[in-house]
Design goal:
- Helix 3 runs parallel beside helix 4.
- This protein is of the alpha+beta class.
- About 4% of the residues have low confidence.
- Strands 2, 3, 4, 6, 7 and 10 form a six-stranded mixed sheet that branches. A five-stranded mixed sheet has the order 1-9-8-15-14.
- The protein has two domains: 31 residues; 178 residues, OB fold (Dihydrolipoamide Acetyltransferase, E2P) (Beta Barrel).
- The chain has six helices and 15 strands.
- The termini are far apart.
């Protein structure tokens, strides 16, 4: 065989192996297309403001505004409070959007867009970003309680926060056993754990509907 034919055969062989390695084998062993995992961000916050500082008392925005989360009360347990601060830091990494100011005491309803971590290796999506009402999210995730004493909350806002608190009390299967008062897990690098939040919005809506029907029946 001539030298040119050997080179051509080697090139064809390399290309064939590359195609098999990159396109055929992944389909055989990882039907989801795991080797081409992607990050999905279809609906970013249109008017996000970056957060300069996070504390248990308030968020300080880059424009200087100090925002307390209306209708939200954090526990006194120091360990949980520290976890709550870490949670708020993670879910506000993309900034926040002001939905409305609830009263004159710097209490706000905010929106956020946390990164959701798809930790399973056989998932075509590595992560996605999802808009949430921040006040509702921190309560539904188990890091805070509904504060009914907040002035200025609308009836629907209060109902939704009560539903979020009830949602946080639902037992979840974690680590091989049922756990009540389970807090949503998160990673400072990857975001919120998909297993804990994939149906959180639907659960909240279900509890809101149940409470609305209960109110009608009274």
């Amino acid at each position: 065989m001539s030298r040119s034919k050997k080179v051509l055969a080697a090139v064809v062989g390399v290309l064939t192996v590359s195609v098999l390695f990159c396109f055929v084998f992944p389909k055989l062993y990882f039907p989801s297309g795991v080797w081409r995992r992607r990050v999905v961000r279809d609906d970013p916050l249109p008017a996000a403001i970056s957060v300069a500082k996070v504390s248990i008392d308030a968020l300080v925005l880059s424009d200087g505004r100090r925002c307390r989360l209306a209708g939200v009360s954090f526990p006194r347990d120091q360990e949980v409070r520290e976890e709550a601060v870490g949670f708020l830091q993670v879910v506000t990494q993309q900034g926040v959007e002001i939905a409305r100011r609830v009263n004159d005491e710097d209490a706000y309803i905010l929106r956020c867009e946390p990164r959701i971590w798809h930790w399973c290796g056989n998932d075509p999506v590595r992560a996605h970003f999802e808009q949430h009402n921040l006040n509702e999210l921190v309560v539904a995730s188990g890091y805070a309680r509904f504060d009914a004493s907040t002035e200025g909350l609308g009836e629907l806002e209060a109902r939704r926060l009560r539903a979020c608190e009830a949602c946080a009390q639902v037992p979840r299967w974690v680590g091989g056993r049922w756990k009540r008062d389970h807090r949503v897990r998160f990673s400072t690098e990857f975001g919120l754990n998909y297993s804990d939040v994939y149906n959180l919005k639907e659960m909240v809506e279900t509890y809101v509907d149940v409470e609305a029907r209960d109110d009608e029946g009274r």
